[in-house]
Amino acid sequence: xxxxxxxxxxxxxxxxxxxxxxxxxxxxxxxxxxxxxxxxxxxxxxxxxxxxxxxxxxxxxxxxxxxxxxxxxxxxxxxxxxxxxxxxxxxxxxxxxxxxxxxxxxxxxxxxxxxxxxxxxxxxxxxxxxxxxxxxxxxxxxxxxxxxxxxxxxxxxxxxxxxxxxxxxxxxxxxxxxxxxxxxxxxxxxxxxxxxxxxxxxxxxxxxxxxxxxxxxxxxxxxxxxxxxxxxxxxxxxxxxxxxxxxxxxxxxxxxxxxxxxxxxxxxxxxxxxxxxxxxxxxxxxxxxxxxxxxxxxxxxxxxxxxxxxxxxxxxxxxxxxxxxxxxxxxxxxxxxxxxxxxxxxxxxxxxxxxxxxxxxxxxxxxxxxxxxxxxxxxxxxxxxxxxxxxxxxxxxxxxxxxxxxxxxxxxxxxxxxxxxxxxxxxxxxxxxxxxxxxxxxxxxxxxxxxxxxxxxxxxxxxxxxxxxxxxxxxxxxxxxxxxxxxxxxxxxxxxxxxxxxxxxxxxxxxxxxxxxxxxxxxxxxxxxxxxxxxxxxxxxxxxxx
Length: 546
Prior knowledge:
36% of the residues lie in helices and 23% in strands. It is α+β, with helices and mostly antiparallel strands and 546 residues long. The chain has a nine-stranded mixed β-sheet, sandwiched between helices. Strands 14-15-13-16-23-17 form a six-stranded mixed β-sheet, sandwiched between helices. The model is unreliable at 331-337 (pLDDT under 50).
């Protein structure tokens, strides 16, 4: 039996020397900031009953939680979140205390992320929760504390992004479509997938609700965004106007505190819309490649534990900041916070179309056309670097922030996923996912479980799950058309352009699954910290795509 006594579990690591010192400095700084603002520390157990997270299942799906069983057979989970246990604590042990309560914590959370993605499954978080105060001033003070905490602790350039999920919720209430369509709209707004959002809304009719939803993810930037939103919302609903006024008042209050340069507005910030009730925000720093702070107002969460109390809070990912600071201290590759942009291009079938598009945008692509074996090149006269990589690696480069943007096929995005914005359908590299089987054979006939071969097991699995059909998926790397010929599989899921290869191998299309084309994706943090240069690049590209 293989033993693992010399390594740590995937997603965890030992901390040594400099890492421990930097982590201690960060936590000490945050402790001081929170205590000086009147917060008191609490600690919740590392294990909780699974039941307390069951109402939050859509935010913490059961497959992402580490589970165990106690000596009475009850299911336990390693704490995936700190806010929900603190809500339990408040409604039990602190229910008779004078409100509002100002609590803070320093503790680890555990989430079972997909493997081989470079993501941590064990994270140290510090955060604050304000319970029993729904006032405007409470929201302003909490946001100011977030900016102050990140700034005082030397985390570099700081940005706080504000949104209001109440706007999205109201629009969803007025949209007469099923939950699957609403879920798709939510996903496309949160990822700024303009093309997919537009396509989805085309099926929902033309009215002011769909018009607003279509523009919502594009409404981000500075104070100028409020006027655009006011014009868009005009005549719709008084409640929508009130939410807009509230968000603008928050922005004005933060501006009066001298924080105007640190604040961004994003009406497309709708992550965890059912969890939060109104104000939501994220924090970014130039020394980290992913958001380091997230929070918002969750006025309905405590009802799950028997308390009807308003609440707001935020959490800071200490590990992200430690990694960023160490990179800037010379132990890694520092994030470039200047105006330089780094674009990743997928080698292979999309490469030619991507370079042609860059040439249409007015860029000198002579270095790219004559790159030889070089994988990192610059565009003459532009502050832009281009990285060539395998398609799946482009997604990884952008998600981890080593590249600001990437051009990659929709097939790779569907198969590998990731946290980034998908902002443009570039219109080239068109093909489609299909289910194919031997010609003249009824793939769905009989009751035996079918075997399906594919280079895209995730896409295949999700297609059949939507049909409610059990299949055995066999992952292949090469010519999947061989699988039915060799009786390895009953059918295949693969990309098809003309269908000639299928026909020559005695196969035919059973179902079309998804149309595919090249997409422009953008790192979330880069979009906030390099907003002007990235917006200019996107607008230029969008004009040439037409």
